[in-house]
Amino acid sequence: MKKLLCYLLVCSFIFLIGCGKTETVLQEFIVFEDTGSISRTLAKPQNVLRDGITARVKIVGKSDEEQTHGYPYSLYYIQIIDDYHNGEKSDAKAVYSILFVGTPSQQMYRQPPLEIGREYIILNLMANNPVERTFEASYWFDIAEVDGEEYIYPYFLDCSDFETKIAITDKTENQIYKKGRHDDILTYLKKERVENPTFDYKFKISDFLAEFRGE
Fold it and tell me: Smallest Cα–Cα separation from 125: which of 79, 66, 60?
Protein backbone atom coordinates (compact mmCIF):
# COMPACT_ATOMS: atom_id res chain seq x y z
CA MET A 1 0.00 0.00 0.00
CA LYS A 2 2.83 2.37 0.92
CA LYS A 3 4.60 1.56 -2.36
CA LEU A 4 1.42 2.29 -4.31
CA LEU A 5 0.95 5.59 -2.48
CA CYS A 6 4.55 6.62 -3.16
CA TYR A 7 4.11 5.69 -6.81
CA LEU A 8 0.98 7.81 -7.11
CA LEU A 9 2.68 10.77 -5.43
CA VAL A 10 5.66 10.54 -7.79
CA CYS A 11 3.37 10.33 -10.82
CA SER A 12 1.39 13.32 -9.60
CA PHE A 13 4.60 15.32 -9.08
CA ILE A 14 5.84 14.50 -12.58
CA PHE A 15 2.45 15.45 -14.02
CA LEU A 16 2.47 18.80 -12.24
CA ILE A 17 5.98 19.56 -13.47
CA GLY A 18 4.90 18.74 -17.00
CA CYS A 19 1.89 21.03 -16.70
CA GLY A 20 4.16 23.88 -15.62
CA LYS A 21 6.29 23.70 -18.75
CA THR A 22 5.51 26.03 -21.64
CA GLU A 23 5.61 25.17 -25.30
CA THR A 24 8.22 26.86 -27.47
CA VAL A 25 6.59 30.04 -28.81
CA LEU A 26 8.82 30.72 -31.83
CA GLN A 27 7.80 28.62 -34.82
CA GLU A 28 9.84 30.24 -37.59
CA PHE A 29 11.82 33.32 -38.58
CA ILE A 30 10.49 35.65 -41.27
CA VAL A 31 12.07 35.07 -44.69
CA PHE A 32 12.74 38.40 -46.43
CA GLU A 33 11.53 38.64 -50.00
CA ASP A 34 14.57 40.61 -51.18
CA THR A 35 17.09 38.07 -49.87
CA GLY A 36 15.13 34.81 -49.74
CA SER A 37 16.73 34.40 -46.31
CA ILE A 38 16.10 35.21 -42.66
CA SER A 39 19.04 37.65 -42.87
CA ARG A 40 19.42 40.92 -44.72
CA THR A 41 21.87 43.83 -44.84
CA LEU A 42 21.38 46.01 -41.78
CA ALA A 43 20.41 49.64 -42.33
CA LYS A 44 22.86 52.41 -41.42
CA PRO A 45 21.57 54.96 -38.87
CA GLN A 46 22.60 57.82 -41.18
CA ASN A 47 20.29 56.41 -43.86
CA VAL A 48 17.27 56.15 -41.55
CA LEU A 49 14.56 58.79 -41.81
CA ARG A 50 15.00 61.56 -39.24
CA ASP A 51 11.73 63.44 -39.56
CA GLY A 52 10.52 62.13 -36.21
CA ILE A 53 11.78 62.02 -32.64
CA THR A 54 13.97 59.54 -30.78
CA ALA A 55 12.29 58.41 -27.58
CA ARG A 56 12.69 56.20 -24.56
CA VAL A 57 9.52 54.16 -24.23
CA LYS A 58 8.06 51.63 -21.82
CA ILE A 59 6.08 48.64 -23.09
CA VAL A 60 2.84 48.55 -21.11
CA GLY A 61 0.82 46.01 -23.06
CA LYS A 62 0.26 44.00 -26.21
CA SER A 63 -2.85 43.44 -28.29
CA ASP A 64 -3.97 39.97 -29.35
CA GLU A 65 -4.53 41.53 -32.75
CA GLU A 66 -2.00 40.61 -35.43
CA GLN A 67 -1.77 42.27 -38.83
CA THR A 68 -0.16 41.45 -42.15
CA HIS A 69 1.32 44.09 -44.45
CA GLY A 70 3.58 41.91 -46.54
CA TYR A 71 5.05 40.67 -43.26
CA PRO A 72 3.30 39.81 -39.97
CA TYR A 73 2.99 42.60 -37.40
CA SER A 74 2.16 42.78 -33.71
CA LEU A 75 0.51 45.73 -31.97
CA TYR A 76 2.09 46.91 -28.72
CA TYR A 77 1.11 49.66 -26.28
CA ILE A 78 3.76 52.12 -25.09
CA GLN A 79 4.27 55.13 -22.87
CA ILE A 80 6.85 57.73 -23.85
CA ILE A 81 9.23 58.19 -20.91
CA ASP A 82 11.48 60.78 -22.60
CA ASP A 83 11.47 62.14 -26.14
CA TYR A 84 15.00 63.63 -25.97
CA HIS A 85 14.30 66.95 -27.63
CA ASN A 86 14.04 70.52 -26.43
CA GLY A 87 10.58 71.24 -27.75
CA GLU A 88 7.22 70.31 -26.31
CA LYS A 89 7.48 67.14 -24.23
CA SER A 90 5.25 64.16 -24.91
CA ASP A 91 2.53 63.24 -22.44
CA ALA A 92 4.13 60.58 -20.23
CA LYS A 93 0.69 59.44 -19.02
CA ALA A 94 -0.68 58.79 -22.50
CA VAL A 95 -0.73 55.24 -23.88
CA TYR A 96 0.06 54.89 -27.59
CA SER A 97 -0.11 51.92 -29.92
CA ILE A 98 2.75 50.97 -32.24
CA LEU A 99 3.25 48.38 -34.96
CA PHE A 100 6.12 45.94 -34.54
CA VAL A 101 7.42 43.62 -37.26
CA GLY A 102 6.91 39.99 -36.25
CA THR A 103 4.71 38.00 -33.90
CA PRO A 104 5.64 35.64 -31.05
CA SER A 105 5.40 32.65 -33.40
CA GLN A 106 6.86 34.28 -36.53
CA GLN A 107 9.70 36.63 -35.64
CA MET A 108 12.29 38.74 -37.40
CA TYR A 109 15.79 37.32 -36.92
CA ARG A 110 17.87 39.64 -34.69
CA GLN A 111 14.74 41.33 -33.27
CA PRO A 112 13.15 39.49 -30.32
CA PRO A 113 9.58 40.34 -29.29
CA LEU A 114 9.24 43.31 -26.96
CA GLU A 115 8.86 42.61 -23.24
CA ILE A 116 6.02 44.15 -21.27
CA GLY A 117 7.38 46.33 -18.48
CA ARG A 118 10.74 46.82 -20.17
CA GLU A 119 12.07 50.12 -21.55
CA TYR A 120 13.63 50.61 -24.99
CA ILE A 121 14.98 53.37 -27.20
CA ILE A 122 13.17 53.80 -30.50
CA LEU A 123 13.99 55.96 -33.52
CA ASN A 124 11.77 58.15 -35.63
CA LEU A 125 8.47 58.43 -33.81
CA MET A 126 6.12 61.09 -35.16
CA ALA A 127 6.22 64.17 -32.95
CA ASN A 128 2.92 65.18 -31.34
CA ASN A 129 1.29 61.98 -32.56
CA PRO A 130 -2.43 61.81 -31.64
CA VAL A 131 -3.14 59.04 -29.13
CA GLU A 132 -5.68 57.47 -31.46
CA ARG A 133 -3.11 57.15 -34.27
CA THR A 134 -0.89 54.05 -34.29
CA PHE A 135 2.85 54.65 -34.63
CA GLU A 136 4.53 53.00 -37.59
CA ALA A 137 7.16 50.30 -36.97
CA SER A 138 10.69 51.61 -36.48
CA TYR A 139 14.16 50.71 -35.16
CA TRP A 140 14.61 49.55 -31.57
CA PHE A 141 17.51 49.55 -29.09
CA ASP A 142 17.73 47.37 -26.02
CA ILE A 143 18.77 49.08 -22.76
CA ALA A 144 20.99 47.49 -20.13
CA GLU A 145 23.08 48.62 -17.18
CA VAL A 146 26.67 47.37 -17.04
CA ASP A 147 28.94 48.23 -14.09
CA GLY A 148 26.62 51.04 -13.05
CA GLU A 149 26.53 52.60 -16.53
CA GLU A 150 23.52 52.48 -18.85
CA TYR A 151 24.03 51.51 -22.49
CA ILE A 152 21.86 50.98 -25.55
CA TYR A 153 22.23 48.13 -28.04
CA PRO A 154 21.00 48.33 -31.67
CA TYR A 155 18.89 45.37 -32.76
CA PHE A 156 18.56 45.94 -36.48
CA LEU A 157 21.00 48.76 -37.34
CA ASP A 158 24.64 48.66 -38.41
CA CYS A 159 26.28 51.30 -36.21
CA SER A 160 29.87 50.26 -36.97
CA ASP A 161 30.63 53.65 -38.63
CA PHE A 162 29.73 55.68 -35.55
CA GLU A 163 32.71 57.19 -33.74
CA THR A 164 30.93 56.88 -30.39
CA LYS A 165 30.58 53.09 -30.66
CA ILE A 166 31.97 50.90 -27.88
CA ALA A 167 33.03 47.39 -28.88
CA ILE A 168 31.43 44.70 -26.71
CA THR A 169 34.04 42.27 -25.39
CA ASP A 170 31.87 40.16 -23.08
CA LYS A 171 30.41 37.19 -24.98
CA THR A 172 27.17 37.01 -23.01
CA GLU A 173 26.58 40.75 -23.20
CA ASN A 174 27.20 40.64 -26.95
CA GLN A 175 24.59 37.97 -27.72
CA ILE A 176 21.21 39.32 -28.83
CA TYR A 177 19.25 36.37 -27.45
CA LYS A 178 19.85 35.94 -23.73
CA LYS A 179 19.34 32.94 -21.49
CA GLY A 180 16.44 33.60 -19.14
CA ARG A 181 14.90 36.19 -21.46
CA HIS A 182 14.69 34.37 -24.80
CA ASP A 183 14.80 30.68 -23.88
CA ASP A 184 12.24 29.66 -26.51
CA ILE A 185 14.30 31.38 -29.21
CA LEU A 186 17.54 29.81 -27.97
CA THR A 187 15.84 26.41 -28.14
CA TYR A 188 14.82 27.13 -31.73
CA LEU A 189 18.32 28.33 -32.68
CA LYS A 190 19.87 25.15 -31.33
CA LYS A 191 17.30 22.94 -33.03
CA GLU A 192 17.66 24.65 -36.42
CA ARG A 193 21.43 25.21 -36.05
CA VAL A 194 21.05 28.96 -36.46
CA GLU A 195 23.72 31.26 -35.03
CA ASN A 196 22.88 33.49 -32.08
CA PRO A 197 23.47 36.96 -33.62
CA THR A 198 25.49 39.63 -31.86
CA PHE A 199 25.18 43.37 -31.20
CA ASP A 200 28.95 43.99 -31.63
CA TYR A 201 28.69 47.59 -30.38
CA LYS A 202 26.94 49.50 -27.62
CA PHE A 203 26.49 53.21 -26.94
CA LYS A 204 25.88 55.69 -24.19
CA ILE A 205 22.51 57.23 -24.96
CA SER A 206 23.71 60.85 -25.03
CA ASP A 207 26.70 59.98 -27.25
CA PHE A 208 24.58 58.10 -29.78
CA LEU A 209 21.92 60.83 -29.96
CA ALA A 210 24.50 63.58 -30.45
CA GLU A 211 26.17 61.73 -33.33
CA PHE A 212 22.86 60.64 -34.84
CA ARG A 213 21.71 64.26 -34.92
CA GLY A 214 25.09 65.44 -36.24
CA GLU A 215 25.77 67.61 -33.20
Answer: 79
Name the percent of the chain lying above pLDDT 90.
67
Where are the extended beta strands (E) located within 126-208?
140-146, 149-154, 166-167, 201-202
Q: Rounded to whole angstroms, what are the CA distances from 125 to 14, 61, 120, 187? A: 49, 18, 13, 33
d(C-alpha 31, C-alpha 102), whole Å = 11
**Separation of alpha carbons 61 and 160, rounded Å:** 32
Q: How confident is the model at residue 143 (pLDDT cuts 50, 70, 90)?
A: very high
Residue 79 pairs in a beta bridge with 58
With a CB cutoff of 8 Å and minimum separation 6, the contacts of 1 are none
Nearest to 138 by CA among 152, 162, 155, 153: 155
β-pairing verdict for 106-107 and 119-125: unpaired
pLDDT at position 156: 94
- Residue 155 to residue 121: CA distance in whole angstroms: 11
